[in-house]
Amino acid sequence: xxxxxxxxxxxxxxxxxxxxxxxxxxxxxxxxxxxxxxxxxxxxxxxxxxxxxxxxxxxxxxxxxxxxxxxxxxxxxxxxxxxxxxxxxxxxxxxxxxxxxxxxxxxxxxxxxxxxxxxxxxxxxxxxxxxxxxxxxxxxxxxxxxxxxxxxxxxxxxxxxxxxxxxxxxxxxxxxxxxxxxxxxxxxxxxxxxxxxxxxxxxxxxxxxxxxxxxxxxxxxxxxxxxxxxxxxxxxxxxxxxxxxxxxxxxxxxxxxxxxxxxxxxxxxxxxxxxxxxxxxxxxxxxxxxxxxxxxxxxxxxxxxxxxxxxxxxxxxxxxxxxxxxxxxxxxxxxxxxxxxxxxxxxxxxxxxxxxxxxxxxxxxxxxxxxxxxxxxxxxxxxxxxxxxxxxxxxxxxxxxxxxxxxxxxx
Length: 411
Prior knowledge:
single chain, Rossmann fold, Cobalt-precorrin-4 Transmethylase, domain 1, 4 domains, five-stranded parallel β-sheet, globular
């Protein structure tokens, strides 16, 4: 919908941030526009009342837990009593005009969704990054405001718009444990990108999104903390010590890991080391490769009517190894989906154990190699042929393999 023209002679908008915590706000209307306004008002901790005979399912979901009061009827004069702010967002221009008129009479600022030229307040395009709020008015054009807002947020996220002023002034350092996702930088969370953009030191795994490291400013120190399978690796104790050392020196430290820090990532060991040293630490979850990699290859880990569970196991040691903590007999009896991480070399032994404990030998298996990268490959086989397939195709880590009927869905 094109923006309502606004006469420049009416004056430019005066930008201001409303602190609505505990303040009554009335939203008249129950459609998509009302839902978006209510979501933002709740984020500001306003006490929201919605007046409308009907509301969207998403808006009704906010009413259920008591976050919103819903007056299930049409608007009536007097509904704005005791309000600090109002939104007129119905499909009826006449109703919106009546709401705006009552707001004007009561000296309440009112955003009229259908006619910006008749609103006493304009709702900006808003974005948030931590405690920074980006609010943009586009001269009466909402799409223009959205484009500028998104550009500023993107710059804050990737570091092209630096937020160095926001650094703590007390000289204290901190650590952020960031899950980088399955490898594609586009699958890393916004919060993770924000942390990376303000880092002084980055300790990165080889499975983390490597392309993000090349975009870091020259002053950022990058430490290779890779752990290659059966190969060179930095000891976990050394990683813990470096995190603490740099943080105690007043640096912002990011521990950039592949997948999720707490899914076979030893992230909690790093958290314990930081807290023991009195270093503030934050955890930023990531898209675990156990779900992300199969999904990118077209293999869902669950499907309605087919499986009610999926189990993720580490295959870094075979089933008969003294260090194995997996109850393989129980896993073999499961009917749902099994996802195996770090299980390339041990795949033949794991497949044999699953068959021994109840899984049919012809159970479908999908092997995804180099997931979330341009080199991603997918092989379909069965438990009986898994070892031969891995050998024939020259499969090497990183690889994820999935066992179960869901494998056949993407074929």
